[in-house]
Write a structure and sequence with these properties.
Elements lengths: L15 E3 L4 E8 L3 E3 L2 E8 L2 E4 L4 E13 L2 E3 L2 E9 L4 E3 L2 E8 L4 E3 L2 E3 L15 H19 L1
Parallel strand pairs: 1-3, 2-4, 3-5, 4-6, 5-6, 6-7, 6-8, 7-9, 8-10, 9-11, 10-12
Length: 149
Amino acid sequence: MWNKPKQQVSFKSTDSLIGLGGTLEGKVQCDTNLRIEGNFSGEIQCQGTVTVGEQGTVRSSIKAQEIIIAGKVFGDVTADRRLTMTGTGQLHGNILAGTLSIMEGSVLNGSIGMAEQPAPEKAGGLQEDKNKDKAGKRASKAQSKLEAG
């Protein structure tokens, strides 16, 4: 009864929120997801997903695993995995993303750079057999001599 092993309590990570009507300025670094419905100015680095809601306005560079833009963003964004712009999203800055989804109605003013994804395996192409190639050249020369003479 007294020697029972203590149970480990697991804590779930919570998302961070900058709510509607809220204004925040500075540098945000987070390991969880971040949702912005208010105003933010500064720099954002996030290991999760950054979502800029329809009422959100961000004047900042954003670096995250995934970025969803439904509001307004003024600054460069880097999405390691995916960037999604909804029909209400506006981005005035440059993009670097693994994959990109831009829905009809969104506004993009800037340049796009796609991160190169490593190929899972080499593409199967023709494998050259040098001995076979030499034999083919010899046969071709012999055929041309027969036709010429």
